[in-house]
Amino acid sequence: MVSKEHELSEEIVRLKKERNAIILSHLYQRPEVQDIADFVGDSLGLAQQAARTDASVIVFCGVHFMAESASILCPDKIVVLPDEHAGCPMADMVNEVELQRKKQEIPDAIVVCYVNTSAEVKAECDIACTSANAVNVISSLPMDRPILFVPDKNLGHYIASKTGREMLLWEGCCNTHDRLTADDILTAKAAHPRALVLVHPECRPEVIALADIVTSTTGIIQFTRENSAGEFIIGTEMGILHALNKQCPDKQYYMSSDKLICSNMKKITLEKVHQALLNLSPRVEVKQEIRERAVRCLDKMLEIKRL
Ligand code: 13P
Ligand code: SF4
Question: Which residue owns the Cα nearest ligand 2 atom 3?
Answer without folding.
Answer: 262
